[in-house]
Write a structure and sequence with these properties.
alpha+beta, Penicillin V Acylase, Chain A, 6 helices
């Protein structure tokens, strides 16, 4: 696909996205985690929830791929070319990622941030350093190798309040970044400025703000993966029911504050495994606990929009392997980024195909 055709196709698919979003809410239940293997390999994982099929595809974006930032009223801001190749998820054909990992092992995801995202007014921003919300993640992953580099560059960037083309709605997003050293940050647009938080916990969900979630952890300092001992009262021994009594009280609902606590519980208590490949499987098992089936969350008593987990991704940040499984195909599949021609002239795109029929188990012949 030529860059000119890519730009035209991008504008058309943006209009498709806009018309679809006009009748359906965006993702409000994303969960983002980081694990570290015993050999130091960081492994990143996240879920993506939406209330309509966002037609996700896997894409490998090469080096030197051209982008143009979006300004208000169909204007443009600045141009850039991808310094680093990346593998990630694009939606509705537009060549910007909602999640991905680049060739240096920098990974990131955009998560919904309703009620708290507050972008810079376009009139107050310098077009030479302004991006639309849906472009920020792609700009960072195509330009930088580490969390530290993103942190330094983001201080000079404005994310501007630009409605998605065709509707009067601006995507409210915040962003998680992790790199091959194990460093993590969260970037949130607050009061027109980008607030950058170091994230030693490696966990992020949705609203409220990241600092609120950190303060909320103090409400759960009594939670432990170790079973509670029996209690003696008036000579009677009161034993807990079954296993898991140390986790009694950990929230199990799908709200962002509860998912943050539960995700932190899994990350903090999971057994550290020797290497990246084994930790990828561990991340998959943890993300399974945040999977939302269709119908579990409803926007009104008669059904409304039915948000569900469209896909879950995992990335080995040292091996540069990106993994994904979808609602329609629960087999984790991989993309080895370093096996591609990273100087190719076009995107490589693969759809997430449905696989409704489970594969039969092959028994050995007698």
């Amino acid at each position: 696909m030529s860059r000119r055709l890519s730009g035209i196709f991008g504008r058309l698919t943006a209009l498709t996205l806009a018309s679809t979003m006009a009748v359906a809410p965006a993702a409000q239940a994303c969960t983002n985690i980081l694990l570290t293997a015993a050999d130091g390999t960081p492994v990143y994982g996240r879920t993506m929830e939406y209330a309509f099929n966002i037609q996700s595809e896997l894409a490998v974006i090469p080096r030197n791929y051209g982008y143009v930032g979006t300004g208000p009223d169909n204007t443009t801001t600045f141009k850039w070319k991808s310094r680093y190749a990346l593998a990630g998820v694009i939606n509705l054909g537009k060549p910007v990622v909602s999640d991905g990992m680049n060739e240096k092992g920098l990974a990131g995801g955009a998560l919904y941030f309703p009620g708290f995202a507050s972008y810079t007014a376009p009139k107050d921003a310098d077009p030479s350093s302004s991006l639309a919300p849906w472009e920020f993640l792609t700009w960072a992953l195509t330009n930088f190798a580490t969390v530290a580099e993103v942190k330094a560059a983001a201080a000079k960037i404005s994310i501007i309040d630009v409605p998605t083309p065709g509707i009067n709605f601006t995507l409210p997003l915040h962003f998680a970044f992790h790199d091959a050293t194990g460093a993590s940050i969260v970037i949130e647009p607050i009061d027109g400025k980008l607030k950058i938080h170091d994230n030693p916990l490696g966990v992020l969900t949705n609203s409220p703000t990241f600092d609120w979630h950190i303060n909320n952890v103090s409400n759960y300092v009594n939670i432990t993966p170790v079973d509670a001992p029996s209690l003696k009262i008036a000579g009677q021994t009161i034993a807990p029911f079954g296993q898991g009594s140390g986790l009694l009280g950990i929230p199990g609902d799908p709200t962002p504050p509860s998912r943050f606590i539960r995700a932190l519980g899994y990350v903090a208590s999971a057994k550290q495994l020797p290497d990246g490949p084994q930790t990828v499987r561990l991340a998959e098992h943890i993300l399974n606990n945040f999977d939302i089936p269709i119908g579990f969350i409803r926007t009104d008593p008669k059904g409304g929009q039915l948000e569900y987990t469209q896909w879950s991704s995992v990335a080995d940040l040292r091996a540069k392997r990106y993994y994904i499984k979808s609602y329609e195909d629960q087999v984790l599949r991989s993309v080895d980024l370093m096996s591609f021609d990273l100087d190719a002239k076009t995107l490589q795109i693969a759809p997430l195909k449905a696989n409704p029929t489970p594969t039969a188990i092959a028994f050995p012949k007698q």
